[in-house]
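DM from R.C. (forwarded with permission)

"hey, sorry to bug you on a friday — could you get me a structure for this? deadline for the figure draft is monday and I only need the backbone to look sensible"
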Amino acid sequence: MTRICVVEDEESLAEMIQLNLKLDGFEVDHFANGQEAYEAIRNDPSYALLILDVMLPGMNGVEICRRVREESNVPVLFLSAKGTTTDRIEGLKAGGNDYLPKPFDLEELLLRVRVLTNSKLQTTEDEVSIGDWIINFKSYEASNNTSGSNLTLSRKEIELIKLFKEKENEVVSRSEILDRVWGKDQFPTTRTIDNFILQLRKYFEDNPKDPKHFHSVRGVGYKFTS
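My reply, with the result:
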């Protein structure tokens, strides 16, 4: 069963969150003190998600997240009555994955929890899955819901991935890549493509020297498998 750690010192809110998470099939541990929560999290690597209030006795949620990030990539969802842009940025800079200001809609909380605890999301036409990564073609963002990592991609990187998604499991020649991604009015060299592929491997391959997604086909081009 998927385990979630809820760190919230407002008793009635904590009870409501716990009840609804349990009804959704999660196993929940609750702490009202930040220091106690941090010690428990350090000693238990099995949590799939941390839900952290920001203002807590003992240790605040941002500090908990900052310390946890030194050892773990477990997803973190902040809850806080402090919902200004500055507060959200502080939480995200500390390593948080999402930030939900209070008061919040319970269904929205549960939806965000489901997203953060599922490493494999259903993709739409605006997305593609590459291993544990989800790439969104509209936002130019890539997110890894297993490690909690995020990337912002360039326009050319997105266009290249779009082409590979369209031609998945087919060999795509360098000349077709140049025509489709750079266009006939630009004159990059084939070496430019190779450099872009090297960068995509660094982003999305567990071992860039032994790629599982972006394959070289000698003398022709590349083949993509998600």
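R.C.: lifesaver. The helical segments are 11-23, 34-42, 61-68, 85-93, 106-116, 155-166, 174-182, 190-204.
me: no worries. Confidence is low (pLDDT under 50) at residues 119-124.
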